[in-house]
């Protein structure tokens, strides 16, 4: 389970990295005229907005229970995480796909390619560092549970969203690093458009995965299965209690 401070630190780290990356990618897109680079700049810009939404969600989830919300506001973070999935789909994926199709239909020559490659390599190092930090935190929390099963089962939607964004960014950078030099060497701008198109498809795929996972939590998902035997043991140790006939749990927010 995560604390609010742990979640916030990972979000802020990714936000600062993406602000820097979005700026340098936009500069590189201007000088190279690369559609794949523009797609990456749009992706990083969308990620900045997404992480701001996550920070809002984490802050809202910390509000104390009151008369109108007797179980607290913990599920607020799931609502904001779902908005992030929608933003990633439209602000990143759909726009990148459109840009890719446009560049394929109307190809343009890629210029100053070495500027773009240098920026992409720097961005890859930064995004890779952030992603590795996310993976280490996920490994710490999942214990013996398989990595991908933990991604499906965990209630810490904010960390999963940040990891998914960063992992998608790394994949997008790899595709851009392939598309940009190929377009330059062949003199065919359609390769650059194809890179942008693939980046968009990756973002759409990640957004759909996040939307499905967060929707389950937003609607009302049962608490972690590891809590079941603990609760039953507490009941068994309570004087006057014989046994649990039926137990219904609902996850109200990250632990």
Could you characterize the architecture of this molecule?
Helices cover 76% and strands 0% of the residues. The protein has helices spanning 4-32, 35-61, 76-105, 113-142, 147-153, 157-186, 190-220, 227-236. Helix 1 runs parallel beside helix 6 (157-186) and helix 6 packs antiparallel against helix 7 (190-220). The longest helix is centred in the C-terminal third of the chain and has 31 residues, at 190-220. The N and C termini lie close together (5 Å). The model has no long low-confidence stretch (mean pLDDT 83).
Q: How is the topology of this model organized?
A:
Blueprint: H1 4-32, H2 35-61, H3 76-105, H4 113-142, H5 147-153, H6 157-186, H7 190-220, H8 227-236
Helix pairs in contact: 1-2, 1-4, 1-6, 2-3, 2-6, 2-7, 3-6, 3-7, 4-6, 6-7
Strand content: under 5%
Alpha-beta classification: mainly alpha
Tally of strands: 0
The number of helical elements comes to 8
The rounded Rg comes to 21 Å
End-to-end gap: 5 Å
Quaternary organisation of the protein chains:
single chain
Uncertain runs: none
Shape assignment: elongated
Give the helix proportion (percent range): over 70%
Integer average pLDDT = 83
> Which H/E pattern describes the elements?
HHHHHHHH
Major sheet details: none
Concise account of the structure shown:
With 255 residues, the chain is mainly α.
Notable traits:
255 residues, 8 helices, elongated, mainly alpha
